[in-house]
């Protein structure tokens, strides 16, 4: 394993070792999505952040307590975020040098190009996940199919999104 990739994995492992016990303390159901999910499945890519969606809403008292506990690590306060792809609430923490983006999933909407508007991404409730072991830490990842769906729905796609989609589709063909 290349030294840079090893350093990225270690940085992610340390951040996950920090956040996972806190998520478990609050008994949240949560899932890792986005590029980190693709990476954890085995798609070669650079790591940027770890996206975590929690099965709750921004007004849940337990979620507010959770956010309060993370205050020393918050690098972006909980805010309403809207762009051409998403309409959601999220906040960011940084642990070590690893950015973690946290979103209450019941408030997450994604732009549907065909319908011309935002719709709930998790309209069927808690999503299908796959549990993996990442550096000794058990993680629920959004299913490969749903990571692909999410990235294909993006109005503005980066090259990395296209590579993630192709890599995940290739992994699905080998199963």
How would you portray this structure in words?
With 175 residues, this protein is an alpha+beta fold. It is built from five helices and nine strands. Strands 1, 2, 3, 4, 5, 6 and 7 form a seven-stranded mixed beta sheet that branches. It has a two-stranded antiparallel ribbon with strand order 8-9. Strand 6 (109-112) and strand 7 form a beta hairpin. Helix 2 (34-41) crosses helix 4. The protein starts with a helix and ends with a helix.
Q: Could you name the ranges where pLDDT drops below 50 across 5 or more consecutive residues?
A: none
- Note the main sheet: 7 strands, mixed
The SS-based structural class is: alpha+beta
Number of helices: 5
Amino-to-carboxy terminus distance: 24 Å
**Mean model confidence by pLDDT:** 93
Anisotropy-based shape: globular
Strand residue percentage: 25-35%
How many strands? Answer: 9
Percent helix = 25-40%
H-E string? HEHEHEEEEEEEHH
User: Rg from C-alpha positions?
Assistant: 16 Å
């Amino acid at each position: 394993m290349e030294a840079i990739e090893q350093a990225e994995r270690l940085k992610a492992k340390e951040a996950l070792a920090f956040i996972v016990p806190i998520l478990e303390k609050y008994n949240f159901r949560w899932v890792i999505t986005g590029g980190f999910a693709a990476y954890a499945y085995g798609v070669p890519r650079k790591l940027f952040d770890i996206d975590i969606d929690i099965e709750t809403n921004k007004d849940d008292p337990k979620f507010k307590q959770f956010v309060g506990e993370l205050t020393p690590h918050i690098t972006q306060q909980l805010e309403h975020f809207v762009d051409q792809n998403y309409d959601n609430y999220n906040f960011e923490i940084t642990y070590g040098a690893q950015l973690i983006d946290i979103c209450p999933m019941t408030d997450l909407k994604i732009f549907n190009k065909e319908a011309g508007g935002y719709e709930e991404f998790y309209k069927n409730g808690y999503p299908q996940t796959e549990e993996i072991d990442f550096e000794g830490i058990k993680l629920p990842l959004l299913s490969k199919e749903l990571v692909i769906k999410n990235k294909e729905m993006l109005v503005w796609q980066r090259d990395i999104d296209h590579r993630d989609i192709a890599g995940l589709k290739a992994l699905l063909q080998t199963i």
